[in-house]
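Contributing: when you submit paired examples, paste them exactly as shown. First protein:
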Amino acid sequence: MQQKKQKIHFIAIGGSVMHNLAIALKQGGHEVSGSDDEIVDPSRSTLAQHGLLPDTEGWNPDKITPALDAVILGMHAKVDNPELLKAQQLGLRIFSFPEYIYEHSKNKQRIVIAGSHGKTTITAIVIHVLHYFKHKFDYVLGAKVKGIENTVKLSDAPIIVIEGDEYLSSALDPTPKFIRYQHHIGLISGIAWDHYNVFPNEEEYVKQFDLFADATPKGGILIYCEQDSMALMIGKKERADTLELSYKNHPHTSDNNGQFFLTNGKERYPIKIFGSHNYQNISGAKEILKKIGITPEQFLEAITSFEGAAGRLQKMKEYPSTSVYKDFAHAPSKVKATVKALKEIAPSRDLVAVFELHTFSSLNKKFIPQYKDSMKAAQQQIVYFNPAKMKDKGMEVLTEDDIRKAFAAPGLLVFQDKTALENFLLQQSWKNKNLLFMSSGQFGGLDIPALAEKLQVS
């Protein structure tokens, strides 16, 4: 498929991973076009930078012509999308994102990292270490990593490392994306019910990971976190002619200055990420890398320079007695792990945790009780949501009482207006306190770096 230059059109080019694939294909010499009904930053700016931003927003069937070699369909596009209908009418080759990646990598060793939480960081660590030692490899990642230009790379490399999502492949294909990649080495970091709009109960959600594990081929490898009960249950199931390996927290320690270390016997290796979940992530990445030629000693050398995936426990501002962090956490298990990790690094400081209900699952009245006790490690728990967005999505609007009941947290504060939230935070004294923001959204446009600069920290 890559042997000759192709004309490729993206339906829903503005998606977080779709726009990065479009850029990678253009850089590979292909002729790329795309459409979307809404494109926001960072996708908008990045597409513009690479000359791929559509002239107008909206769907334009005129862009679909017999001259196209392939159409890549994003999961945001619906079955009645006019461009999709035109492509079907013309009999064009239509791929979902994972189908296209598989088509590109049929002759490669495919490594797929799956899990409700941790998969981005594990994938990022594997990519960082391989890049550190100048190995030749392709990758698909859900967040930026320092030193790596794009989040998708496609070449003639013999290996591809893929962050595997359990969400549906496209409107035409309800298969979870991570199954479409057809892994040789698969990893399950942990399983906690998410995507309520697709998997209405926990049993159906967990089943997808069981299918992923069962798809490990003869001679393949399945790696799983033994400290996660669901991953353990699925991972230890016997499968003919597959190698099943478990991992747990990497040995670690810290000093009185807040520096964290991985340990190997008496040796210590300083690291820049922290928290129990990240010690698990480090071990998972280490197991994958051992299977593709990276020794434990090489791994420990390279991991010391890993700064984390963008948006994952990112320190926005540091004062002598206060630090401000932002994290991508949105599912209950991610929120719980992030809050716990931040409290662990500064147990003597109060922690103020601010969480935005932004995803379909988190805004659903039936799913939101899953967040019970997710922020209990924080001394002050705050939830922000925008009821207008819920109305726009045709959802039943949550009340503040719904949220307080779901989180079961005495003293929980609920804000529906980002200005009111900002004013509240600016009025507080931040001496000996840490502030944490968690969301896959933008808190209604709240400028977190600017707010961090104005905190009362005396």
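Second protein:
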Amino acid sequence: MNLAPADLPKEGGRYDLAIALGILQASGQLKAEGLEGYEVLGELALSGDIRPLRGVLPAAIACGQAQRVLIVPEANADEAVMTGHTRVLAVAHLLRLCEHLRGGEQLAPHQRGGALPCLPMVPDLADVRGQLQARRALEVAAAGGHNLLFSGPPGSGKSMLAARLPGLMPPLGLEESLQVAAVHSVAGLPVAAACAGQRPFRSPHHTASAVALVGGGGRPRPGEISLAHQGVLFLDELPEFPRRVLEVMREPLETGEILISRAARSTAYPARFQLVAAMNPCPCGYFDDGTSRCRCTPDQINRYQQRISGPLLDRIDLQLQVPALSPQELLTPAAPGEASAQVRQRVLAARERQLQRQGRANRDLSGQELDRHCALDGRSRELLSRVMAQHLLSARACHRLLRVARTLADLAGDEGIAQAHLLEALIYRGKWTEQG
């Protein structure tokens, strides 16, 4: 048996079935011509049973492009046919496959049957009481694909709001669905939700390591940022993450992919995710909440907030204070707010304007596209110039402000960016805008 190239590490049992067929062909028990046009994946038990494995979907995509027939274990067949362009044969035992290859009873191409698996329900925005500005920020983030940071005291609804973002976002397109499903397949996770157009929502605990977040290990695996590809990565209690863990996200936030390099090889995983984070304003959580509960010193508050570096904050387009609700607001019965379905219609309309204008979401606008699609009039340029000089904004922060303003104009159905759109975008840049 030749498992070339020799320097590429082999792992798992995905080659078992192919090796067994090679031995049967070399010993004259199968004819060579019977194996032409097939790709074979499967782990082989000593009894001849063919066991499932992970990473079938990327192989199925490649087989469809090469116009070859893919033979997989029965347990992987539904996943393999999700590409829609690959002829898949499902088999449970080696003897049954040999019978097919010898010209006996033929295996029928697998067709996905039965009801679709029950997908998890996406929380509805109507459950959120009050927090009108935070709801608006969620709508803007969903429409333009912008990163978002909520800051506020415990119990103000930051995590509740973040969990409702996927329900506002446009469904995955066919190509996006296959990208997301392929990453989840390689990681050994279910792919049904991605293939149904549901965007992923990943929420790692703050004790996660850098490898868990970006991927890697001795045998590289996708990390949380890749599992959140085309979806949402939610980091709760953001300052509690080790700083070196947070800093590894800076490059993927710009490039949309992560390159994991080892001595023998490099592996690139997609990582075009939308970052949503939540944090308390101080160690106890009650700084500037309108009460006297906070006992943190200014030095403690400063050290806590500085756990998040300036370059990382620069990459977060919307930075919003989320105040706690008063007891009266919380306990008084009120009519439910807008449901996710209503907000989603405005998001879809704004995203459609972006696709027609530039073929991509506003978060992905390049330098020349910013000049073309985010042009400001004289008064707005003067305002932005004054804000940049007063608050020492970087060029990256300025460009992200323009992208948010462009999204606000799209939500309003306007062709150009008005001063009102720029002012609202400035409000979402954090607490310093209130002071400026």
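If you have annotations for the second protein, write them as plain sentences, like these:
The radius of gyration is 26 Å.
The chain is about 40% helix and 10% strand.
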